Amino acid sequence: MSEQLLLSNIRNVLARLEETIIFELIERAQFKRNDIIYQTEAFGSVLGGESLVGFHLLEIEKVHARIRRYTSPDEHPFFADLPEPVLPALYYADNPLQPNSININNLIRDIYETEIIPYICLEGDDKQYGSSSMCDVTCLQALSKRIHYGKFVAESKFRSNPTGCRRLCAAGDQAGLMEEITDPEVEDRVLERVAFKAETYCRELSMEGAGPKIDPGIIVDIYRQWIIPLNKEVQVEYILNCFSTSG
Amino acid sequence: MSEQLLLSNIRNVLARLEETIIFELIERAQFKRNDIIYQTEAFGSVLGGESLVGFHLLEIEKVHARIRRYTSPDEHPFFADLPEPVLPALYYADNPLQPNSININNLIRDIYETEIIPYICLEGDDKQYGSSSMCDVTCLQALSKRIHYGKFVAESKFRSNPTGCRRLCAAGDQAGLMEEITDPEVEDRVLERVAFKAETYCRELSMEGAGPKIDPGIIVDIYRQWIIPLNKEVQVEYILNCFSTSG
B170 pLDDT band (50/70/90 cuts)? Predict the structure, then answer.
């Protein structure tokens, strides 16, 4: 029923997410760093103790929860205690994943706010808080989906070598598992594709006098330094979590 | 303060919006038409009398209203009676527009749901209601911004020929105004650029085996048939509205 969950469809989904991530990072880089939007209480108590971006993300997640976004196995909320869906539940007959509750969104949000934003945006404050936060929320949601897609990748890798994976799990050999799931050639291809897309998009903007304020290489760095490693972290955690005990 | 509102920056903003519109239309075309998400009461009374897309759009607008999206002169909500912003008001010192309340979002939504969706999506129901609605909301918001940007374009055109425009206004000559603001060369360039971008993006997806389910020419048609004409409608309405009476 849901093509998005088929293991054979992983590359399709990742390719589409790539577009969103590249596009939103370049969009965000139009604006200054605007540190104030990541600071809790910066706007007083109206945001319920959250930062502006936190408040915005939570409110959007509440809406998405009601239209059952987080019942899908490829979606992970940043916040707990979201409202129940107003739509009847869907049964994901094609879900290939083992039951698990892996969710590294706190880490993703922390890295995004403290490492990625300072890396892509010029220092300073241009008052574009709403627009900046809009990019941040879209970007965080896409990053979360991209990184947690490691679960589907790991499931697929496990199925191609169940005996080897189970042995590494039994030995608690995290480094061995990391090696098992690592494919430097695939990583290089991802980085090349990201470079190509980021360059194409930046060139398109420049053609129209809308010169982007970011070097396409920066986007590639973000994939190399954070997105790919975090995705692999999810893969290892998934295999350890799901295939360690049962025989 | 806000570069986005400068008339010299119109092309930049329109170019960036183009990316979003092209991307989201292609995304939406992955899914079937899913007519049920546009029907009011299709899911019972839980959606407050709205369709799923209407409910989703309204709830998102409530969130965005609170972070003061609709206080910006380039943003237009689809719904009335949205909550007040929780952030202090921004003063848009650089706003070049005349005071006006032109908002054709009802028309945009109607055309999107009854013309554009049947044009880009295959008939049928694939149960991807949440994902479809996600594309719809992003797309509707981008279309609204793109089309209402006609106000900025019109302001700029008025400033380059105030006497001619005022004369046409005084005569109530809508057809003359339409001719005044029409530039077939610019329109052709927009259509060429849209074709180029849509082809590039569809090719990128195909490269990764994620073949899009839409022909890039369809996106060009949507610009030709609806986006450009609606944008020009806003331009004419703006000039008539803002420059008819005062001397």
Answer: very high
Question: Backbone dihedral region of A95: left (phi > 0), alpha (psi from -120 to 50 degrees) or beta?
Answer: beta
Tell me the pLDDT band of A247, cut-offs 50, 70 and 90: very low
The rounded distance, in Å, linking the Cα atoms of B91 and B166 is 29
* Nearest chain B Cα distance for residue A247, angstroms: 35
Domain containing B153: what range? 3-243
Quote the Cα angle for A201-A205-A206, to 5°: 115
Record: contact B52-A67, CB cut-off 8 A = yes
Q: Which 8-state DSSP code applies to residue A71?
A: G
Q: Do B1 and A46 touch (CB under 8 A)?
A: no
ipTM score: 0.90
Residue B44 or B61, more confident: B61
For residue B4, the chain A residues in CB contact (below 8 A) are 128, 131
- Tell me, what's the pLDDT at A1? 43
State mean pLDDT over A185-200: 93
SS3 of residue A6 by DSSP: coil
The answer to whether A239 and A102 are in contact (CB under 8 A) is no
Distance (Å, whole) CA B211 – CA B208: 8
CATH of the domain at A200: 1.10.590.10
- B90 vs A contacts (CB less than 8 Å): 127
Higher pLDDT, B1 or B125: B125
Contacts of B223 (CB under 8 A, 6+ apart): B190, B191, B194
The count of domains in chain A is: 1
Query: Nearest Cβ partner of B16 from A27, A67, A90?
Result: A27
Q: Residue A89 and residue A86: Cα distance in Å, rounded?
A: 9
